[in-house]
Amino acid sequence: MCASAGMSIFNKLALLHIPLPLTIVAIQMAFTTVTLLLRPSELRWGNSDDIKRWAYTVPLLFVGMLASSMVAMQFASLGTMVVCRNIAPIPTMLIEGMFRIPYVMTARTLLSLAVIIGGVALYEIHEIRFSVGALLAILVNMLFAVLERIMQRHLMANNPVELSKPMMMMLNNGIGMLPTLLLALCWGEQHKWADAFSQMDKRDMTFLAISCLNGLAISYAGIRLQHMVAATSFMVVTNVNKFAVIFFGIATLGESASYASLLGCSLAVVGGVMYADARKRADESPMRDMHDEEKSLVKRAALGGDADLDSGDEDEPE
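Predicted structure:
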């Protein structure tokens, strides 16, 4: 969660000094790719079909998620980004239902979702200020984020590929660099490269470097967490830490905040905590009456039946 909050903060700082959102994403992907290539022994896979299944789907969704997030962040405040993303569990839940992913709805779940919606609505009424372009980018970002997480979980738990976590990161970032650069060219960022990079000082380079390090950390942490929880719970967990991001925007970037908007933000975050707890209780309840052997089988089935691949043990396929 620290990596997620740091990513939002340092991406915003980098954008304020280097207004090239898609170029920054491409640089972050290049950094992650080069870092992974320095440790080739961790890039493990089972067979070429596993690589193809992952490479043909997840990297493009990954690009869409990161690119739309950076474009939205260029035009919207940190508070706007955080609060809008808090409603992501709702479309995630709906899409999970379309894909017939098992989901247990309880009174606690409904209550927590109502608190989230109420908090987001209160914040929006009193505080949110953004352009239509920023709103569209945020909506597109939520769509790509939901689809990317569901596809990752499908390929990691429901129909698992034999790929190590570093290999998944390598495919996401290595393949994603080219379409990201093409998007940057279509966006016209190449005309600003000379001026932007020639005017960079040590502070700008520091913000960019830290954003790259955060990108590496969140890629690894995100994939590991995605293997362990359902996509809806994943979206909530990534939102709970955003309180610090909002206060950073208020204290450092001069983003305005009224009492009503802070109350709305608080309700949204508290609702996220309530939702995570409700999902945990709902997921654990069917397991309580099972014997130890049955629980083990259920857990292995939920993880795709291959815990060794996730841990990177010596028997992981090369």
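Summary: The CA atoms of residues 25 and 93 lie 28 Å apart.
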